[in-house]
Amino acid sequence: MDLLAPSFRSVVDTDNGPGDTKDEQVNKVDAAMDWVRQHVLGRFRKYGFKVWEHRDDPAYETRIDDKLREARQGVGLLRRANEGERKPLLRVLLMAYGRIGRRRYELMLPLMPTAMGRDMKEALSAGNGMVDGGADEELQDETDQKTRAAARRPNAAEVNNGHWTAYVRDFSPQLRALLESQSRLPPPHLTRPPLRKLKPQVEELNSWFRPMPLSRVKNQTKEWYADVLYKAHPPLPLPEWQRLRALAVGTLKEGMRPRRTPIAPARRQSALELVVMYGKPNPRKAFGNKQAHQITPRYMRRLWAQVFAQCPVMEWEAEKARWKVTWGEQALGMAYTLELEEAVAEKAAATSG
């Protein structure tokens, strides 16, 4: 880990404003860099303890080899991102801001119904023990399950008319507001396909033109429910959303530290020499990374804008008693419109003067 953090710091290290004190400069850590550090440490700690538990199990060596292969792939991803390759760098930012990967599930937790949120907490806590469980709500969950089991199961027509909560849990108010906003104002589908159906559409007749069996109705309803949750974009916390907006618009700058120049060998090895020495040459070592890009503020601003366009934020409107959802794409559009209006106004003032 000590080798990964310095190599990635030049990509995601934060800039400190001229008015920041020394303590504030130390405490300001970029979300991407902090997430990468914590993710790598958590994974190694988790599997380091598991390796110790299975130290006398020869069959566990295959699992260790698989995880070491994943770790090497992660190192390669960070190395290519640090070289400015667009896809790896964008993937790291998407994982850090919860558009894909583990953090997306963590951001979905507050939106989920009680029992599903508890199940997700248990799944995440099984990963590294960092998430608390919800044992105090078990009694209410068991009561809800007994109530649903005793109720009559609806058929396909009733499910299509909105009576699908007998098979799956109803959306929470926050999740429903988010899904309705996402369906009405779809963000760029960079990581998730667009959300089209907020209600299940189950075929009422099977291939024999008979009423669809209730077991099939149940399975199709669960498939629709899982598809909706898969396509949902969880909201970011307000301070993080505001900071990412400032990075995407350009009002907040991050200092780009120059990369340390590696010590070049006296002579670059040819592809034939690499084959003789290692058996399979690495194209990047033999010919260099052709997709590398110089990491400039303008380059990073474009990547941050791509990530921010998919990030919503939710605020409670007390006057209207509802959740307000604002998407990054909307905020970017308003910021660019305001910037254009200011430029036109300055040009008009200069012309008239």
UniProtKB/TrEMBL annotation:
Give the span(s) annotated as Disordered. 1-22
Q: Which residues form the LYR motif-containing protein Cup1-like N-terminal domain?
A: 32-108
Offer one Pfam family short name for this entry: LYRM2-like
Identify this protein by name. Answer: LYR motif-containing protein Cup1-like N-terminal domain-containing protein
| Upper classification of the organism | Eukaryota, Fungi, Dikarya, Ascomycota, Pezizomycotina
So which domain of life are we looking at?
Answer: Eukaryota
